[in-house]
Every structure is written in C-alpha cells, then in structure tokens.
Amino acid sequence: MPSNESKLTVVGAGLVGSLLSLYLARRGHTVEVLERRPDMRREALDAGRSINLAISTRGLHALRQVGLEEEALKHAIPMRGRVIHPVQGELAYQPYGKDDSQHINSLSRGWLNRFLMTQAEATGRVRIRFRQRVTHADAAAGTLTVQDEATGETREVRDTVVFGTDGSGSAVRQAMQPRPDFQATQETLGHGYKELTIPPGPGGSFQMEKHALHIWPRGSFMLIALPNEDGSFTCTLFLPWQGPVSFDSLKTPQALEDFFQERFPDAKALIPGLVEEFFARPTGHMVTVKCAPWRVGGRTLLLGDAAHAIVPFFGQGMNCGFEDCAVLDGLLESQADWEETFSAFERRRKTNADAIADMAVENFIEMRDSTGDPRFLLEKGVEKV
Ligand code: FAD
C-alpha cells in the first residue's frame, strides 16, 4: 500500500474528485481538494452541464463500496425503459430488460455532487478549498500553481501527489502536453445541446411516464428527457451547430416555435418556457478526449473526464469516472507505491475507457435514429446523418 505519509492533492471537486477523495480518506490518507468554483452547497452556481444524470451499475457499484448507494438511490428515479415519441401517433415503449429490476436511474447532478463533498469532508481527512484554480502543474515534480479566485493571489503547492480530476478541459492534462511521451486527441462533436424544462403538473405530478427515459428521435437531431424528483423533466435538445436544422437556423423565437411545433409537437405543449429558456441558457459543447499516458511516475494521475471525456449518449461518463475510483482503490491494497499503483491503474482502465468513448459516439446514431422507423423522423429534406 502506498505510504500514508504522502501529501495528496485532488484537483477538482466535481463528481469524480469528490468521490475519489472519499476513497483515499478511507484508506487513511489526508487529502486536500482544490476546486475553482465556489462551494455549491452555499452559493447557487450558474446552470452548467446536465441537471440530471443517468447512474447505472458501474457507478452504483462504486458508491456501494463506500456505503453511499442506498442514500443515493433514495433520491433517484428508476427508468425502466425508453419511451419513444413519434411526430404524430402513439408512443412506443422499449423496456431496458426482462423485468423492472433492470433499469437505470435518474439522479440530480447537483444533489449528488453536494452529497459526495459532504461525505468526503465527514471523514475528517478531506479539506476542500474552493475558488482555488490550478493554473499550472509540474506533473513530474508534483508542483501546482494555484490562483485564489477571490483575491487573485497565486501560490505553489509542492511535493504533492496530484490527482487530476478537473474535467474535460483539465489544466493538469494540459500541463502534461509538452512531455515528449504524451499524446492527446480531442474530438468535438458537430452537435451542441440545450437544456429545457417540462415543469411538474398539478400537485407535483409527472406530465409524462415517470419511470422512463423519453426520446424524440429525429434523424440528425433529437430531444431527450429525464425525470426529476420534483415532478419536472429536464429535456436536452441535441442539434447540429450548422445546417438546415441547427442552432444556426434557430435564431428567432418564431423559428424556434415553428420548429418545435413541426418536429416535437407533444413536447412543445409541455414546455411553457421554451423560448425564454432556449435563448437564455448556454449551449453546451460535447467532446471526446483520449490521451496517454494518464500518469507521470508516481506523482500525477488523471482520472474521470480529465483522462477520458466522452459524449453523453451512453450515459456513462460519470459512471466510468466512478469506476475509476473503485478500481484505483482496489489497487491501493495490492500495490507497493504510487508509481506501481498508477501504472497498474492505467493498464486496467485505458482500453475500457477508449471502448466506452467509441460506444458513446455510436449510441448517438442509435438513439437519434432509434428504430429507424420513418414515423419518428419526418425528415422533410433534412439529411439523415
Ligand atoms: P467534472 O464533472 O467536469 O468536474 C470537474 C471539476 O473540476 C469541476 O468541479 C470544475 O469546477 C473543477 N475544475 C476544472 N478546472 C479546474 C482547475 N483548473 N482548478 C481547479 N478546479 C478545476 N455521465 C453519466 O454517467 N450519465 C449521464 O447520464 C450523463 N449525462 C451527461 C449529459 C450531458 C449533457 C453531459 C455534458 C455529460 C453527461 N455525463 C453523464 C458525463 C458526466 O457529466 C461527466 O463524465 C462527469 O461530470 C465527469 O466528472 P468529473 O468529476 O471527471 O469532471
């Protein structure tokens, strides 16, 4: 087992960094976590990436290992299948498994992140420092340059073992870029996404089937919706950036309303804030990041999206990052030091992470075309990609 004497720094208190620090603390390590954002438990943050997430077996397994699965599932809504919404006509239900026990779960990203931070701090070994942005890293030396976002002051953290869990745009990964043995590819999808809300019905009721992931497959674009605990659904519209039907073509409220009326009439009737939300909310980018090596000696290791960002269509980015934490934890038991641990970790995870990344892109095509049934598409001259 690597020494408990080492100074450990986790960069990023997102989903993966928070869970990782909890795992490390349970092994007796003292951990400092540097997070560039304010504490989301005290300040409301701007709407960012998906409001809710699908958590499935690999993610739940990682939570179970640290005794958190049961509590997380209390806040989750089981989704037992997909409900496919055609342009007109009857909905089609596609169950995920033979019976209801086979399902995925919709869970609030914000709740889960806050929960994991609190659980990590409750170990007494984790200190999360907010508004601390890592601006540079010397991955071989274990040195981090950190800017205090409140005061603008810069300081250095030295002689530390660095865990880079700072997401798809990772500063830790970028600092590894000049190393001669380091390679990274970053592929941006030609689609962006926008979140929209179906509010709860009367008395907090669900206005569509609660226990399902809803999909409106339309060929080159699609809409999906996941249920939230309060009776609402968060919808995500995936559209090409440019082309005949794209973010570029939806520049006015009228164009947007006409588009929804034609392509998603049942959803339009349930999204009263369509125009306001569409034009006020940010449009998200999606990227696949593959890189290698994920480590520098026994000093620096990348995990989660920092090592392997994937597009969301397989619902596996966070799940895969949580699995990283569980695998690393298992290796801590059997490996002698950090270098051996990091090396074994990369051997175990890299091929799997790359495979999941490729499957996620493939599943985009499967989801947006769904059954290939022309009822769903109403292409009207739109190229099917
Ligand atoms: P992040 O969540 O990005 O967290 C990184 C943290 O690091 C953040 O808190 C950030 O503020 C901090 N940080 C960044 N830079 C610095 C810096 N320089 N210094 C200090 N701190 C820094 N996955 C699923 O499993 N299921 C789903 O259903 C799902 N749906 C998704 C839907 C969408 C639309 C998108 C975009 C993604 C989805 N994902 C899903 C993927 C999932 O969101 C990511 O895989 C997951 O958030 C990765 O967690 P992370 O902790 O590695 O990175």
Automatic annotation (TrEMBL):
Name of the protein: Kynurenine 3-monooxygenase
Organism: Corallococcus soli
Keyword Glycoprotein on entry: no
EC supergroup of this enzyme: oxidoreductase
Summary of the function given for this chain in its UniProt record: Catalyzes the hydroxylation of L-kynurenine (L-Kyn) to form 3-hydroxy-L-kynurenine (L-3OHKyn). Required for synthesis of quinolinic acid.
Entry similarity comment: Belongs to the aromatic-ring hydroxylase family. KMO subfamily.
FAD-binding domain sequence ranges: 8-328
Keywords of this entry: FAD, Flavoprotein, Monooxygenase, NADP, Oxidoreductase, Pyridine nucleotide biosynthesis
This protein's pathway: Cofactor biosynthesis; NAD(+) biosynthesis; quinolinate from L-kynurenine: step 1/3
GO function terms (MF aspect): monooxygenase activity
Name of encoding gene: kmo
The protein's required cofactors: FAD
UniProt catalytic activity: L-kynurenine + NADPH + O2 + H(+) = 3-hydroxy-L-kynurenine + NADP(+) + H2O
Superkingdom field: Bacteria
Keyword Protease belongs to the record: no
EC number: 1.14.13.9
